[in-house]
Sequence to fold (226 residues):
Amino acid sequence: MNFVKKSVGLLACFALLSGAHAANVLVNGSFESGLSGWTAGGTQASFPPLVVTTDGTTNCCFGEAVPASTISGGSPDLAGTHGVYFVDDLARQTLRQSVLLSVGSYEIGFDAYVPNNGFANAGDALFAGTIAGITLADFSVHGQRTHGGWVHYAGIAQILFDGAYDVSFNFTTFGGASADVVIDRAYIVTTDQGGGTVINGVPEPTGLLLAGLGLAGLAATRRRPD
Fold:
């Protein structure tokens, strides 16, 4: 049975047992070293996934200042002052990392933030985050009730075979000024917690297929970087 939790800002923080003190298996999961350890791909008209400053004062996202993640628990890494911004108005963007996992139980997760100004745009976006074969988030940005605040997505993966497992974030837009997403604090840590999703084999490193929303892109002036 899937074990997926979500908490918003400081309102509904959660801690998942022993994973809190374990080291993060992911390289540069909080993006403090740029995109080191990650591979950006897909197609984009103007902007690939960007590492931006998330300190609450720097206008990183088309005039909007994004704060550092306020989530308590989750990743053992500090939020720091950087995250990855998915923003292009007509693109399918991907961000990937492959990790070697041994048989065992792992807590997995990441934090996401929907900027207010992007949420107000007419065009929608699809976003998905998959870690170790488990899709923790798969949503339409306009379908999110929470924007302008950090949300935590997490789960437990039971790995039955040693091997390489894929971590991927996928972002798709359809034209016109579109919604956007910032992510931070991606992680995989060992835990003694049971339950979760059993992963019976090593997933192939294929991307998550995202279905189009069928929304017509509204004509708009192409956004420019700050």
